[in-house]
Amino acid sequence: MTKRNETRIVKVGNRYLGGDNPILIQSMTNTKTKDVEATIKQINELEKLGCEIIRVAVLDKEDAYSISKIKAGINIPLVADIHFDPELAIIAIKEGVDKIRLNPGNITKKEKIVEIVNLCKKHQIPIRIGVNAGSLPKNMDVNAQNMILAAKSHIEILEELDFHDIVLSIKASNIDLALEAYKLAAKEFNYPLHVGITEAGTSFKGLITSSIGLAKILDLGIGNTIRVSLTDDPKYEIMAAKQILSELHLKTGLPIITSCPTCGRTQIDLIPIAKAVEEYLQTVKKDIHVAVMGCAVNGPGEAREADLGIAGGVKEAIIFKKGKIIRKIKESEILEELKKEIDNF
Questions:
Q1: CB–CB of 169/128 below 8 Å?
Q2: Helix orientation angle between 235-247 and 205-218, rounded to the nearest 10 degrees
Q3: Does position 331 have pLDDT exceeding 80, yes or no?
């Protein structure tokens, strides 16, 4: 495994970023934050899938005053995403948020920055500085060096106030630009890095772009927390992040699914079965390898390394365990019976 880039350790709620701590999976709600019930519901659903830190948009005071209510209904650290208005940060901190995402550079009043920093010190709340390639100062060309300069200018504001519980993200939608920026950031700063390819796209394009970009960055040992940004239900961000970390051997104890691409030999409706099993495994917290195969050719033979699996026949399937057939079932029973085997494994 690639040696991880060493950073300062920062506490976020009941979690720790940096040092030798595991890479944590983040997402962001797409509910209206002031709709407390819907926001809590979505956060708890995302936690079941493996989300470890969640961020909410704080657009106004009603959103900010909803923080304490949301906190009371969830278990994972809550991050408030705030731009321009320092009062919203102040309210969110007093409401008990675990971390704020803020750019000191877009708050013009120095006394407000001082107030925010002092409150964060008092409540032991870290600040994430987020630099995006698309929102650099107008006098700056978009390149990795200028992204680092922008980050440095924001960080220096906090360091001058003796504040060091900082997390940094330095994102771009272009993979090569993001990679170069994160490589420079890892050399320049010792703060934990939140990694992602911003505005990556839909669940199709965004998944491909994020997978390539995150793999390149993480494979260098860079990154302490990640978000896969998708224009879709945030549950797919969590599913993708888990799979990326699993494939890179950066997160263990996650279920693995193997499924064949189907062909003319397949005599059962395999695709919806494979998708349903994949989704079910997102809520399973055990180290298990499940194979969903269309026929005997790809069944216990090619998938013999799997812990459990099915192989289709003519409107039926066999269930196999550790390469050995244990019983035959009807096509209509496949999903229910395989779930039982997974639960009992």
A1: yes
A2: 40
A3: yes
Q: pLDDT of 79-118, one tens digit each? A: 999 988 999 999 999 999 999 998 777 777 889 999 999 9
Quote the pLDDT of residue 47.
97
d(CA 143, CA 24): 27
Phi and psi torsions of 19, nearest 5°: 60, -135
The answer to whether residues 265 and 294 touch, using CB atoms and an 8 Å cutoff, is yes
CB 120 within 8 A of CB 127: yes
CA–CA gap between residue 99 and residue 92 (Å, rounded): 9
Contacts of residue 246, Cβ cutoff 8 Å, sequence gap at least 6: 252, 254, 256
Predicted pLDDT at 189? 96
Length of the chain: 345
- Cβ atoms of residues 23 and 1 within 8 Å: no
Q: Report which secondary-structure segment, H or E, holds 234.
A: none
Determine what percent of the chain falls in helix, strand and coil, rounding each to the nearest 5.
40, 20, 40
What's the CA gap between 244 and 197, in Å, rounded? 13
State pLDDT tens for residues 120-151. Answer: 999 999 999 999 888 887 888 999 999 999 99
- The residues, ordered by sequence, that sit 6+ positions from 136 with a Cβ below 8 Å of its Cβ are 142, 146, 147, 150
Smallest CA-to-CA distance from 331 within 305, 295, 298, 307 is with 295
3-state secondary structure of 304: coil
- What does the alpha-carbon distance between residue 187 and residue 138 come to, in Å, rounded to a whole number? 26
pTM above 0.70, yes or no: yes
How far is CA 269 from each of CA 34, 230, 291, 313, rounded to the nearest angstrom?
Answer: 43, 28, 15, 11
Produce one character per residue of 30-42: b if its CB has 16 or more CB atoms within 10 Å, e if not.
ebebbebeebbeb
- Per-residue confidence (pLDDT) for residue 298, from 0 to 100: 67
